[in-house]
Amino acid sequence: MNKQVYDIVVVGAGHAGCEAAAAAANMGSKVLLVTMNMQTIAQMSCNPAMGGVAKGQIVREIDALGGYSGIVSDRSAIQFRMLNRSKGPAMWSPRTQNDRMLFAQEWRLMLEQTPNVDFWQDTVVKLDIKNGQVAGVFTAMGVYFACRAVVLTNGTFLNGVIHIGEKRFGGGRSGEKAATGITEQLVALGFEAGRMKTGTPPRIDGRSLDYSKMEEQPGDEVPGKFSYSRETRALSKQRSCWITYTNPEVHDILKTGFDKSPMYTGRIQGLGPRYCPSIEDKINRFAERDRHQIFVEPEGWHTVEVYVNGFSTSLPEDVQQQALNSIPGFEQAKMFRPGYAIEYDYFPPTQLFSSLQTKQIHNLFFAGQINGTTGYEEAACQGLMAGINAHNRVHEKEAFLLKRSDAYIGVLIDDLVNKGTDEPYRMFTSRAEYRILLRQDNADLRLSEMGHNMGLLPETRWEDVQEKLAQTQAITKYLQKLSVDPEEMNGVLEALETPVINQKVKLDGLLMRPQLGLSDLRKGSTLLDNFLKDYSTEAVEEAEIQLKYAPYIEKEHELAQRLGQLDDIRMREDFDYQQVTAMSKEAREKLSRLKPASLGQASRVSGISPSDISILMVYLNK
Amino acid sequence: MNRPQIFNTDDTIVALATPAGVGAIGVIRLSGPRAIDLANQICRNKDLSVQASHTVHFGIVEDDGRRIDEAVFTLFRAPASFTKEDVVEISLHGSSFILDQVIQLLIRRGARLAQPGEFTFRAFLNGRFDLSQAEAVADLIAADNEHAHRVAMNQMRGGFSQEIGRLRTQLVDFASLLELELDFSEEDVEFANRRQLKELLLRIVQVVSSLQESFRLGNVIKNGVATVIAGRPNAGKSTLLNALLNEEKAIVSHIPGTTRDVIEDVISIGGVKFRFYDTAGIREAEDMIESIGVERTFEKMGQAAIILYLFDLSTTSPAQLQAELDTLARHNAALLLVANKMDEIKSLEGLEAYRKMGEMLFISAKKKEGLDALVQKLLSWVEAGKIQNEPVVANARHYEALGKANEALQSAVHAMDAALPTDLVAQEIRQSLHYLGEITGEVTTDDLLGNIFSKFCIGK
Fold first, then answer.
1. Is there a contact between B422 and A88 if contact means CB atoms under 8 Å apart?
2. What pLDDT, in 10s, does the model give residues B271-289?
3. For residues B19 and B26, what is the distance between their CA atoms, to the nearest angstrom?
4. How distant, in Å, are the alpha carbons of A278, A517, B433 from that of B173?
5. Same domain for A490 and A525?
6. Percentage of chain A exceeding pLDDT 90
7. Of A53, A275, A618, the CB nearest to B186
8. In CATH, what number is assigned to the domain containing residue A578?
9. Which residues of A touch B452 (CB under 8 A)?
10. 109-138 of B, contacting A, C-beta below 8 A
11. What average pLDDT does the segment A291-317 reach?
């Protein structure tokens, strides 16, 4: 039926699969996106929100490179908040609440409008491997697609098992079938596989809730957005979220279900995330706390369905219902569907190169939960990178890699392929050693040139970034040059309880004071105020951040540069570590197995000592 | 956050080139782009920057006007040197105190203490060796590293490792709270009490500073039970040390006040290392340099685990001895009175009067009599657990790490005082954790996350 040989087949159309398909197609590859159900493309299977701390930075990075997640999130947003505004700029984290249905719809429209993307509704059950390289996929319907590379983004579907109390059934998501076959084939080929678990809370009928007993959390007064592009707009109206709390009565009710909990009866073997525990896990591990926060998120503009964040559970549905009804505001709550836990297969990501290609099978790429991660943003950015690298591989180009000092995406992949993970991996800002460099305000300055150079980011977007850069530099120069008189500025300084000045002082010096922002200085200096009127808000903010935190930014730049030298020393894939007898046996075996792409990567493998690295340097000099 | 340092090849490294604690001459080697500049900075009487390669210069080593020693500087300009970089070798008197001071001085001016094998490593990278020698170089690095590790582990036993470990745990908790605030602010998390946090930081600064101080006072490179030999001038302290060492090391003479500084040596007795300090005699000093020496003696005694108080049996009456002991500075050390010059007294009568004054041994340092008994006594004290070993930083690498940790901790305090955002404070604290981790071999990032997950309830 199919004579055409696709460049790339993407298996799965979640966050990872959609980004992979879009990226590869935009770069010029012929892509086939295979999904079990065309109606569930880009489903938000967990909470209806994008971004948040560390994750919001990732969405900005995806957008800066030319991925779609930022644009889709903006177009389907029902609320925008910049989290952590009171902290330093490295912590500012955009987050949207999204209309779940609109989000999926926007993604599908974006993909439909992307040339080079074909769709096929089916389940891939087997890969066609020829001479250690993937050559096609076989589907459940018995169709064969020939291709030159495959990106697997199976999410929770590989041998997925759903648990609700003592009930247990195969499935990849509530109401959807699991996928079988691929794990078994890969294990037979020598891959190592493991089990992970995650959970989701019940969905509730919003009409049955009493919001007067909850605390309202509205969106930002002046909402921002994810995408740097001019294709999306900030929201003009927003929907609120609501906060309430559990109490000892709720905990007591939940405890009555523990003997039927799949978590405690040992029926779930997979490893769950410590940072996103189920409600039963929370009351068990943190018995001293008599309440836990519940965050009520609307599922969209029009639907009455709400998501009960903080109440992830796999207890029997009657216990869930009873416990919910003891939460303030939930007394009359009606459930649409209960929470559940899901177990699924993953492949320890140390089996991947940094390009996300598997080390065993050429041209086979993994992205998303199959690599042991959790979260939409984590999945999406891996999809983007896998899509780019599958394209590069097929077109015989160098792999596109991001360093830890380039992007959170670089941190994520570097952690995965070098350290692996024993629990679903979620991004935190504390995972990044160059947190102050990896900000949401400068993702475009960090990454857009790369996105543009590889033909992923449209020309107009790159022009915008150059314009922002030029404006930022002009403002910076001006602030470094312009001095203000005591008469102009002291009023402002006094009002903000910071020492007054006795003589003319440069503006950039004043800006370094923690109490002062550029908006304060504008009040004191009409010259400055008039000057800045000609520049974009983004450029003004960027210049302010760059000047205000200059010493810290500079420090991290130096550190990154110093440590980055090791990342620039490439290791050949066929390097024979066993010949380096001066290294410990453990080091030789680990490195032989992991095949690090650079010396820097080798240095981050657990158990590799600095002396092992210097020994390697000696050998590389050969 | 692991930051192997050996791969920096663009800075200037320094290390002792001769074995520690032995020999009349000690050689310090500098290599790197600033080698000549740094040597020049500490050399008072000659401009080394204009001297030709392969020349030798006599110079006086000074630290801010304080004279440390006389030295011979040997210059090698790149590429005609062992490492093919600029190299300066500084030959000094073999006192480890002096050598350590000069190394510290160079570190303060911007040199970095070399990692084991690093000179050879640089030599190799700069093409000094035939490529076929790669394996030998690699083996050398491996062996050196193993040695350094063993040494470090030895030093880490006892109070020091516990002290650092305790500090680090507190700081990890502190940092975890901050990271928790940063990463989970939107959730219902606990917040770090800023006042308590600052108090903790300041307390840690204090302990780190005192650990640094313990290094600065001369306990470098070697470790062992700090044993101070004290007493009036001419009681025979240097003679005793030399007798114990079996070699002419301290400057022995009969002129009171010859030993103007603290001289240090390590002797291994029955598997226990003793770090002996020969001190300047305690009396009213007659010149500046000597009075500094006496001051150091008191300082040293304050840090000693054992004080051997030596007196001349032939010239000191029991009453005089009592008067001397009364003037001793306050100390927590175990005190052993050592009656010297047994060979010079004519009668054994009247010795009882001395014995009543404390634990006492009678010896003749000159004739090497009674030394066995002395050595056995010291050993028995250590074995009986009588000696409390105070945490002492003995490894220059650890000292360097403490210095950097301290710097970062102080920046954190300043950042808090200036009400800077938490992420900037956290950056400084991560830095200090990193440097403390360099000593204990622990990694920061994983620590923090593990700590957060185990201690705090987070996640919606």
1. yes
2. 566 778 777 666 554 555 5
3. 8
4. 24, 32, 11
5. yes
6. 73
7. A53
8. 1.10.150.570
9. 275, 430
10. 115-117, 121, 124-125, 131, 134-135, 137-138
11. 94
